[in-house]
Amino acid sequence: MDCEQVGQLLDAYALGAAEADEAARLEEHVADCVRCWSSLNEAQQAAAAIALSTAFQRAPASLRNRILAETERGERLGVPKLMQLLRSLWPVGAGIVTTAAVASLTFAFFLQAEVNDLRDENDQLEAQVEDAGEILNEQRQLMAILAAPDVQQVRLDATDHTTSAGAVYQWSSSAGTGALLCNNLPALQEGQEYKVWFLTQDHSYEAGSFQTWDGIGQLTMDLGDLPELPLAIGVSIEHADAREPGQMFLLAEFEQ
Amino acid sequence: MNVSYSDSDYKQLGDEELMRRLFQKDKHAFEAIFDRYGDLVYSTALRVLRDAHLAQDISQEIFVRLWRKPESYVAERGRFLTWLISVTRNRAVDEIRSRGRRLRHETASPEEQEREFPAGEANDPALNAQLAEQARTVRASLTELPPEQRQVIELAYFGGLTQQEISDRLDQPLGTVKTRIRLGMQKLRAALAPEMRSERI
Question: Which positions in chain A touch B90 (Cβ < 8 Å)?
């Protein structure tokens, strides 16, 4: 795409009305062209101004309270800090077990400290203590898997190649448990959750579900209940009451 | 407005200074940003989504993300207000798309939208004086556009439709839609140029 073609498309792009392939070519050009970048900036400024034409509504007072409560909640649990730590230790590629174990161990220590701190606070924090305690138990299970001598792993890739989401599933037959660690997951809509499925030739078995925090999600699973050896493991986005999987978002096949 | 922080000086600070403080996790700066732009974010999300509950959820997501990841705004790339509106509009449109365009199909016709969200004179109790002035300028500029140009621009921006989708919806040739968008936006840019140069918009 040259400067003239970019000029023809700038306004549509700024309005979000360019087709995906056109938008990608425009972005490629603009990244290396200062003049077009400047023009695009102007077009985006004008496009954003269109929002000011709307009839303004006062946001409900409860919205302000919800937002402030949400920021407080994240701070109190120190979760963003922990997630930053986890992200920095996020296992990619080979040799992830050690890294994941360190991340898990560190996470567990942090959570233990958080749990201890929270117990010293008043009764209103009990629910948060319970949540943190549950996460701590999950981390302990994860550590047990990672420490097992027969730990195995498989990487789950996104079926939609436009997302950078990914996951690693690790399991130990001797421990009879498995753990799924996901990263870069998109946020869910209200009522939705990520569901994990073991897939065989004819059946799908739900292994559990989880929510995400800042793109990260995890689930530990008891493998004792599986009636047959699975061929694959998948993660789909479902409503909480879904009993059958829709399209898999992340998927990996096991080596048989 | 439910202002809980005591330091009213925050109200006087510019957006960039508030963002600088937000980087330092200054909760008062965050509250000041919400009090300044909360209604605008909510109204933009509401206009796109046409669902008050969803608009609240999206607004919450935008502000909570701003608090947790203020670095997602890069001052060198443009004004804070432009960025905030763009993020809100894009997130709301993503919501429509992720719901299989169900919401979009329920979107009213341009005529119905005009009755519901008039772009001409409007009472703006939720706006501060400066934003209200900017809003009047933008509305006047949009109103001066030929209706068919304004229609495609609003379908793109608020309806989240691509040029091809607008073409299908209006049963107009794609080339016609492209031309209307380009001409309409050129006029809009020209009309808003003084405001943009003075960084009021």
Answer: 16
> Does residue B170 belong to the interface with chain A, where contact is any CB pair within 8 Å?
no
**How many Å apart are CA A47 and CA A62, to the nearest integer?**
30
Contact B138 A50 (CB under 8 A): yes
Structure tokens given for A248: 């898999």
Cβ of A35 under 8 Å from any chain B Cβ? no
CB A240 within 8 A of CB A247: no
Map tokens 């992830």 to a residue. Answer: A96
Candidates A253, A171, A250, A173; CA nearest to A210 is A250
Give B-chain residues touching A53 at CB under 8 angstroms.
119, 135, 138-139, 142
Is the Cβ–Cβ distance between A4 and B174 less than 8 Å? Answer: no
The answer to whether residue A58 neighbours chain B at the CB level (below 8 Å) is yes
Q: Which residues of B touch A14 (CB under 8 A)?
A: 185
B189 with A60: Cβ contact below 8 A: no
Distance from CA of B8 to the nearest CA of A (A): 18
Nearest to A44 among B31, B82, B164 (CB): B82
Per-residue pLDDT of chain B (201 residues; tens, 9 = 90+): 444 455 567 888 888 888 989 888 888 999 999 988 999 999 999 999 988 999 999 999 999 989 988 888 877 667 888 889 989 999 999 888 877 655 454 444 544 544 444 443 344 444 567 777 788 888 998 999 999 999 999 999 999 899 999 999 999 999 999 999 999 999 998 888 877 766 655
Contact B117, B49 (CB under 8 A): no
Cα–Cα distance measured from residue B186 to residue B189, given in angstroms and rounded to the nearest whole number = 5
**Regarding the domain delimited by A152-253, which CATH topology (the fold level of the hierarchy) does it fall under?**
Immunoglobulin-like (2.60.40)
Residues of chain A with pLDDT under 50: 77-78, 89-95, 98, 123-124
Q: Do A70 and B127 touch (CB under 8 A)?
A: no
Rounded to whole angstroms, how far apart are CA atoms B201 and B195? 6
Question: B42 vs chain A: nearest CA distance in angstroms?
Answer: 6
Establish whether this prediction's ipTM goes over 0.85: no
Domains of chain B: 9-107 (1.10.1740.10), 109-201 (1.10.10.10)
CA atoms within 13 A on the CB side of B131: 25
Q: Which residues of B1-37 are buried (b: 16+ CB within 10 A; e: fewer)?
A: eeeebeeeebeebebeebbebbeeeebbbbbbbbbbb
A15 CB within 8 Å of a chain B CB: yes
Could you tell me if B49 lies within 8 Å of chain A, comparing CB atoms? no
